[in-house]
Write a structure and sequence with these properties.
By secondary structure, the protein is α+β, with helices and mostly antiparallel strands. Helix content is about 25%, strand content about 45%. It is built from 3 helices and 5 strands, in the order αβαββαββ. A 5-stranded antiparallel β-sheet has the order 1-4-5-2-3. The longest helix has 17 residues. It is elongated, with a radius of gyration of 23 Å. The protein starts with a helix and ends in a 15-residue tail after the last strand.
Length: about 140
């Protein structure tokens, strides 16, 4: 009986020290039904690259956050990585979350990624791409 209590206490202690975590994500554009209305006539759209940005912050007792600018920092990092040139946009935003727990401290990470597309302005009289076709 005494040995089983010691083994249970040891297993519980190791479990608390090891911590635990959870992660998940979603496609932001598919939920928000993001739609683009261009102020210019567009002749074509081409994929340039995928970009991402992330930010990590912690919280005490997994309840009291240390920083409240997690999304802002992740988006700033995303646009810094994108280095957008004229007529480029970031679309197809994806968002992933990770939470790791270490006894009295939790680490929260937000990772945002997207695709950079180049919009080609249409010459006068050239066929145009409708903005409705890009809202999917």
């Amino acid at each position: 009986m005494n040995q089983s209590l010691r083994l249970t206490s040891l297993a519980l202690g190791l479990g608390l020290l090891a911590g635990c975590g959870i992660s998940g994500g979603f496609l932001r554009d598919s939920i928000s039904s993001q739609r683009f209305d261009f102020k210019m006539d567009v002749a074509g759209v081409s994929y340039v690259q995928s970009v991402s940005g992330s930010a990590t912050s912690g919280s005490v007792l997994c309840l009291f956050p240390i920083s409240s600018t997690l999304y802002d920092t992740a988006m700033r990092n995303l646009y810094a990585a994108a280095q957008l040139e004229p007529n480029q946009v970031v679309m197809n935003l994806r968002e992933d979350h990770t939470i790791r727990s270490f006894v009295f401290y939790c680490s929260h990470t937000v990772h945002i990624s997207g695709d950079v597309f180049q919009l080609t302005p249409a010459a006068p009289g050239a066929p145009k791409v409708s903005s409705a076709s890009l809202s999917q």
